[in-house]
Amino acid sequence: MTAPDDVLAELRALRAGDLPTHGGRTLAYVYDSAVPGLDDLAARAHALASSVNGLDPTAFPSLLRLENDVVATAARLLGGTAATVGTVTSGGTESCLLAVLAARESRPGVAAPSMVLPETAHAAFHKAAHYFGVRVVAVPVDPKTFRADPDAMAAAITDDTVLVVVSAPSYAHGVVDPVEPIAAAARERGARCHVDACIGGWILPHADVEPFDFSVPGVTSISVDLHKYAYCPKGTSVLLHADAALRRAQYFASADWPGYTMLNSTTQSTRSGGPLAAAWAVLRHIGDDGYRDLARRALASARLIRDGVDGIAGLRVLGAPESTLIAVTATGEDFDVFTVADEMRARNWYVQPQFAHRSSPANLHLTVTAANAGNEDELLADLRDSVAAAVAAGPVAVAPEVVAAIGALDPDSLTPQEFAGLLAAAGLGGGGVLPERMATVNALLAAAPPALRERILVEFLGVLYS
């Protein structure tokens, strides 16, 4: 056996190569409250319930109490009523999957179910469509504001529509869709309306935005992640339904085998009580007043950063973000944002590159949290210096013949050997080791059509997990 201290030392050494999860320098993937002692509280609560199995709430009633408390807190925040019910899931994607599944299962007479969503909706809904055989009707958004078009969304609803989706806010641009008219259109046609508030659910109630929650007639379900702006550990989200009848189709039961009757509220069966207990403890510790303060700090920080970006020559913010997510793009062609991302990484910041999609140009995504409050000037100064360095380096150039060759490839007909060559050409070979600077890799990936880019990255994922 290996001594516990040696095991932990090895783990610490491995973690040293990760992006930082605290301090506000990783502007994607992580959410930092900067509240002292919060990690320790969550870890201790997790340890108390990590061996408990959420599969059977009658065997472990503590988890039933914790889940009901967490759901009630989320429902109270998001305009719920006494009829509102919910489920704690493993994350935002599972919450979105279950919302789609419940909508599909509630309309068994629809032979070819579809869901209407703005083209800016999270990819989790495309994943749900893929898993559950629901056809996606993606509706173009306003090309300048990136908000869903209520008239176009309403026109896309048919008798086969089981679900209409809106974002509060959308991940890519941080804008809130006009929920009221879209929910009204869904209600008129007898379709459910889901509000994806995975990111905004714990922030927007404290912001000056249009109504988006259960106070809006026609909203039937809302997803909100606890591991985002509720600042809980990873692995917790809530899916709320306006009433129990709407939730019932989400459940799965099977008695047609010789073992126990399987009864699941989520896609999982066995579920550790650890993440739920950690989330419950964090919610109890921070409380309503604490969350109000954290939300205001994050929103104020995001406003300062947005205003600061407007003062950096060569950059502009896409749309008019209303929450804490910001998309920043270049105003000209004398540099590219992928090089800016590399320069920011060299200055110990991580900003997330986003590829061009229809009216949305290539840009950099920033997730602002309470931990960024007070550090805006340093971030903006490094961003300004990164742009200057990118201008000096010039834009990454991909030869036209390479672009043409990439565009002519059929991802469905390429052999594993050919994909290995593509990975190597894109800088993604070598046993999954990434180059220190990613601008050239991202420029090549940007030149690939979406289907080919998906397949290349799937192949790369396979390399990583080998």
Automatic annotation (TrEMBL):
Keywords, sorted A to Z: Lyase, Pyridoxal phosphate
InterPro entries given in the database record: GrpII_AminoAcid_Decarb (IPR050477), PyrdxlP-dep_de-COase (IPR002129), PyrdxlP-dep_Trfase (IPR015424), PyrdxlP-dep_Trfase_major (IPR015421), PyrdxlP-dep_Trfase_small (IPR015422)
MF term (GO), any: pyridoxal phosphate binding
Modified residues (N6-(pyridoxal phosphate)lysine): K228
Cofactors required: pyridoxal 5'-phosphate
Homology family: Belongs to the group II decarboxylase family. Sphingosine-1-phosphate lyase subfamily.
Protein name: Pyridoxal-dependent decarboxylase
Lineage: Bacteria, Bacillati, Actinomycetota, Actinomycetes, Pseudonocardiales
